[in-house]
Amino acid sequence: MVVDEKTSQFLGKHDIIHLAILLAIAIGVGIYLIATTALIAKDGVYYIENARRFSSEPMQIIKGESFGYPFLVFAAHKLISAFSNSSSVYTWIYSAQSVSLLCRLFAIASLYFIGKLLVGGSKSFWAILILVMLPYPARFGSDVLRDWPNILFLSAGFLCLLWGAKQSKWWVFGLAGLAAGLGHMIRPECAQLVVYGVLWLLIGFLLPNHNMSRPQLVYALLILLIGFAIPAAPYMKARGQILPEKLKHLVGYSCRLGHGRPQGDNIDNTGNINVALSFPGNTAEAVSTLVGGVSENLMYYFLPALLIGIYYHFRRESALTATERFFIPVFIAFNSLMLILLFNSYGYISRRHVLPLVAFTIFYVPAGLQVLSDWLINRFSKLRLQTVHGRQLWFFVLFGVGVSICLPNLFKPIRVEKQSYRAVANWLRENTRREDVVGVPDTRMSLYAERDGVFYEGGEIPAKARYIVKIVDEESENKELNFNRAVREEHSLWIDRGKKKKLVVYRMM
Q: By C-alpha distance, which of 387, 386, 389, 395 is closest to 368?
């Protein structure tokens, strides 16, 4: 049987070769992106600041949001500091980027084995190779972001669920629960693994010919919940709440929809949710934004292959196992629903939010490319090319075109368009005192400058600010800068090549 061939040997010689190639490419790309990063993500400032405060205020960080990733950054910094006397901000930045890259590498290995269980080792290799070469997922894995650490635990737990369900190994569900609990401390959505496991096991009680006995189902259910509770319960107790605020808002919003909540509220300036955007009108917009995010991650080129691959793969019922028929559709539906609720509550879906959907469906892209190659053979190739070698030739042509589309963006330095922010930060570090406070429109400037920063976009200058940085639009009709304190221009540089906007550093007199 096909299933037996896919699962009979979990790690074979070909798997080692495949993983070596995938990890070597991912390491090379990741190190290059780290070395050429012009500026980290905005969220990275929050994560690094929490990591720096962890040794002095551990309980405060645990009670806040996103404890897991800052803790990993803190641990990585401790390890790096053992071999280096440097304690500059760059040590923290490189520690955080290294954590993201290392988690991406382990996640790639987990995803490869998920693909092997679903579509076989060969197709999984080509699928993960495409994922490795996609520019945006690669950037997320070399930035100060928690997306790949989240996918690491999500993929590890998902692999355990698939393996346990396929091989009737009830104890593996405990590992899935443990991965879900650890991942929950990085992103709360990782707890979805418990939902999948519980649903699968409850369905098992209803099916007379299930591959696990009723006692095994009970053991699997208990150990799944215990595994999740081991890391998650102390974390929830320390925080004093079960669900994070943002997730509570999403759950509350979905409940209000079910009760016909009136439309037209807004998000207030404090960030509290008073919002339920129109339904289903904005749901259509949410779906459009969701598809757009997936398309961007796949560089648009691979999206048709993904949709075709999913359609043709799931149409062949005889090639599917019960686990694949359950887990993959449920994963797609659950994550799509969460993103739609996110859009209807907060009004946005980013490329980062759809990364799990891309990573867990990438396995069907090679199947779609193969269908497209068969179509090209039938339409354009001569009879002598309508062979196995002809199919491979067209597959590699389509694959090569996709990779060539990815390469220019893949090797583009991260946020190279923001390098002026880094230049201003360097000037501040070299020309201001350590104790000076700087008002900045982007807190990344003060982070790189290694100065205490306060957010400032205009209006009244904060009393404790010694310097301020302002974005000046040379084409604005209101070029006159009215400050409530006497200032002197100290430094300026253009942001864009067209010389329409510039960053200006002012000193308080």
A: 395
CB 10 within 8 A of CB 113: yes
Over the stretch 183-240, which tens digit does the pLDDT of each residue have? 999 999 999 999 999 999 999 988 877 778 889 999 999 999 999 999 999 998 888 7
Calculate the alpha carbon distances from 399 to 22, 79, 144, 373 in Å. Answer: 16, 40, 30, 10
Task: Please give the structure tokens belonging to residue 189.
Answer: 């959505």
Q: Which residues contact 505 (CB under 8 A, 6 or more apart)?
A: 424, 427, 428, 467, 468, 469, 489, 490, 491, 492
Longest dimension (CA), the chain: 82
Cα–Cα distance, 173 to 193 (Å, whole number): 10
Residue 398, classed as helix, strand or coil, is helix
The conformational region for residue 462 under phi > 0 = left, psi -120 to 50 = alpha, else beta, is beta
**CA-atom Rg of the chain in angstroms:** 25
Q: Where are the domains of the chain?
A: 1-145, 150-242, 416-508
The predicted-structure confidence for 423-440, as pLDDT tens digits, reads as follows 999 999 999 999 999 999
Q: Which string of DSSP letters, residue by residue, matches 408-457?
A: HHHTSPTTGGGHHHHHHHHHHHHHS-TT-EEEESSHHHHHHHTSEEEE-S
- Which residue in 151, 175, 145, 181 sits closest to 163, CA to CA? 175
C-alpha to C-alpha distance for 254 and 238, rounded to whole angstroms? 27
Question: Is the four-CA dihedral 25, 28, 31, 32 of positive or negative sign?
Answer: negative
pLDDT in tens, 13-63: 899 999 999 999 999 999 999 999 999 999 999 999 999 999 888 888 888
Amino acid, res. 74:
F
Distance CA 157, CA 193 (A): 7
Residues ≥6 apart with Cβ < 8 Å to 415: 37, 38, 39, 40, 41
